[in-house]
Amino acid sequence: MADNSVQKGPWKDTLDSFVKYVALNPKEFLFYVFLILTPLMAISGYLSLKLAKHIEKNEKEKKKKATRQTNIAKARRRAKAD
Predict the structure, then answer these.
(1) pLDDT, tens digit, for every residue of 12-49?
(2) Would you place residue 6 in the very low, low, confident or very high pLDDT band (cuts 50, 70, 90)?
(3) I need a labelling partner for 68 at 20 to 30 A (CA). Which of 26, 37, 53, 78 fits?
């Protein structure tokens, strides 16, 4: 029982034809979906690994810098004490 008071537009016609295609060819539709999504997921995984390595590298640099600053401060305190 569709609502006939809604005006049909170009998007509605396109959506209707797409839904009919999916209903008539579900295996072909799923094949195309997986065909399109597989490379995108692979790219996403690669970029995630690259980002994780970059974040780890930055954390190590920050830790080294903090250790260096602490050691410099200790050396200055020792020099003042002498």
Answers:
(1) 999 999 999 999 999 999 999 999 999 999 999 999 99
(2) low
(3) 53
Predicted TM-score (pTM) of this structure: 0.59
What's the one-letter identity of residue 82? Answer: D
- CA 17 to chain centroid, in Å, comes to 31
Query: Looking at this protein, which amino acid is placed at residue 63?
Result: K
* Cα–Cα distance, 21 to 45 (Å, whole number): 31
Tokens of 33: 């979906």
Q: What is the DSSP letter of 77?
A: H
Q: With the C-alpha atoms ordered 32, 36, 42, 45, is the resulting torsion angle positive or negative?
A: negative
In the chain, the amino acid numbered 4 is: N
